[in-house]
Amino acid sequence: MKLLFHCGLIFCAVSSVAEAFFDNNEVFGKNRQFIGVRVNEILEAKYPNLHLILVNPYNKSQTAAFTLQNLTTIYSNSWFNPTRNTVIYAFGFTKNIDDSLSQTILDAYVKRGGHNIIVIDWSAYNGVTVADYPAAIENMKVIGELVGARIAMTFRNFATLRFHLVGHSLGAHLVAYINRGIPKSFLTPQIPKIIGLDPAGPYMYNSSYNHHPLNASDASTVLVIHTDMIAFGAPVKCGTIDFYPNGGGKTEVQPGCPPLDFVDQFVATNFCSHQMAVYYYAESVANKGTNAFAATKCSSYDDFVAGKCRSRSQQMGYSAREYMTGDFYLQTNKIAPFDRGSLGVTYSSSTA
Ligand SMILES: *[C@@H]1O[C@H](CO)[C@@H](O)[C@H](O)[C@H]1NC(C)=O
Ligand SMILES: *[C@@H]1O[C@H](CO)[C@@H](O)[C@H](O)[C@H]1NC(C)=O
Ligand SMILES: *[C@@H]1O[C@H](CO)[C@@H](O)[C@H](O)[C@H]1NC(C)=O
Ligand SMILES: *[C@@H]1O[C@H](CO)[C@@H](O)[C@H](O)[C@H]1NC(C)=O
Predict the structure, then answer these.
(1) Distance between CA 69 and CA 56 in Å, rounded?
(2) How far, in Å, is the centroid of ligand 1 from the Cα of 95?
(3) Which range is the signal sequence, renumbered to this chain (predicted)?
(4) Which end of the chain is more exposed for a tag (fewer CB within 10 A), N or C?
């Protein structure tokens, strides 16, 4: 069937020469066969340097950049294999694909193997200095929704490709917006799994701004690792499965991190706890151990410390059991390897 592009004032739509009709953002042919997704090319044009980067699953330093417009050609790239699982990673405020956090995630997935690895490169729009933060939030929302429409159009069946979206800090909210950009009538209207690594706290949870942070309805499974609830991370539970390693950074920094400097709030060392979510998660990806990051369901960190919860019913990170929802606690080591295996559910003051 021949497809044409028709551009209206706001949307450009893929439509067939045969009759087509629209249902929300989906386009169907006259026999209700799926044709495409309406995408907003006018908004897309505001982000010419937005790329989706496909990483060679065997060598992370080899990459191919796609724009939203040529993303569909990803199927002809040999680094993309539709029989593999697919992970999409979004880094946070001021970060990029070359920084140590992104590289740690890439190393972990390359080591584990079996994944198509895609990075949302929004580094042209995610800020340079602290003053850029409000603008980065606004870009994050628009970029997330634009990517959502395009990945719906490109991949169509998220279940088959076993998609999971991973985001750190503002990237955790970005992946929520990716899910929100998928047409609600789409054949797979929901991303199966989102992993939020210490979702950004500042502004996102302040009612003075009408922001809509990542929440439990943004994917079938929303797994969150909280490491800095006191400063740069989300101050509240926001997933279907929430992990609070070492208490989630609610009252104290992560083990091995320097004390917070309250005078110079943005000094690099103050981001230590916020970044630990990435290091814990990456280790859980690379480590296939059956008891890796064992975690216990518990109603509070105090109860966990008091030894009231030792179920080992959950594992933090990649291997989390999706049907086991709720709040989970564990202890980690101060230095890598952070995993304490099944010991992690038994609080030890000498580890803290
Ligand atoms: C990975 O790719 C880089 C860049 O192309 C190359 O220099 C390097 O040798 C490759 N590494 C391996 C292990 O093949
Ligand atoms: C996609 O388009 C961009 C911009 O035109 C180009 O730089 C890039 O090489 C294209 N990617 C592929 C895989 O065709
Ligand atoms: C929320 O934002 C307002 C407006 O910028 C600010 O005055 C207030 O201190 C913030 N509240 C918190 C808890 O950060
Ligand atoms: C999650 O966020 C979306 C988008 O803001 C909103 O529509 C939905 O009601 C929220 N769900 C919950 C459980 O808060």
Answers:
(1) 21
(2) 23
(3) 1-20
(4) N
pLDDT at site 42:
87
Token couple for 210:
């009408």
pLDDT digits (tens, 9 = 90+) for 286-309: 988 889 999 999 999 999 999 999
Average pLDDT over all residues of the chain: 89
The answer for 287, left when phi > 0, alpha when psi is -120 to 50, beta otherwise, is beta
Give the residues surrounding ligand 1 with Cβ less than 6 Å away.
59, 61-62
For residue 28, report the distance from its CA to the centre of ligand 2, in Å: 28
The whole-number pLDDT of residue 2 equals: 35
Paired sense of beta strands 193-197 and 221-225, if any: parallel
Q: What average pLDDT does this structure show over 247-261?
A: 94
Distance CA 224, CA 227 (A): 10
Q: What is the CA radius of gyration of the chain?
A: 21
Candidates 257, 256, 271; CA nearest to 334 is 256
Q: Which of 64, 38, 40, 68 is nearest to 53 (CA)?
A: 64
Using CB distances shorter than 6 Å, the residues near ligand 2 are: 64-67, 70, 73
Q: What confidence category does residue 161 fall into, taking pLDDT thresholds of 50, 70 and 90?
A: low
Cβ contacts of 322 within 8 Å, gap of 6 or more: 193, 220, 221, 241
- Å from CA of 208 to ligand 3 middle: 7
Question: What pTM, to 2 d.p., does this model score?
Answer: 0.91
Ranking 152-166, 256-270, 311-325 by mean pLDDT, the lowest is 152-166
More confident residue, 103 or 2: 103
Q: Where are the domains of the chain?
A: 1-38, 40-345
Contacts with 27 (C-beta within 8 Å, 6 or more apart), sequence order: 13, 14, 15, 20, 21, 34, 35, 36, 37, 38
Measured by CA distance, the residue closest to atom 7 of ligand 3 is: 208
State in words which class domain 40-345 has: alpha beta
Taking CB atoms and a 6 Å cutoff, what residues make up the pocket around ligand 4? Answer: 180, 212, 215-217
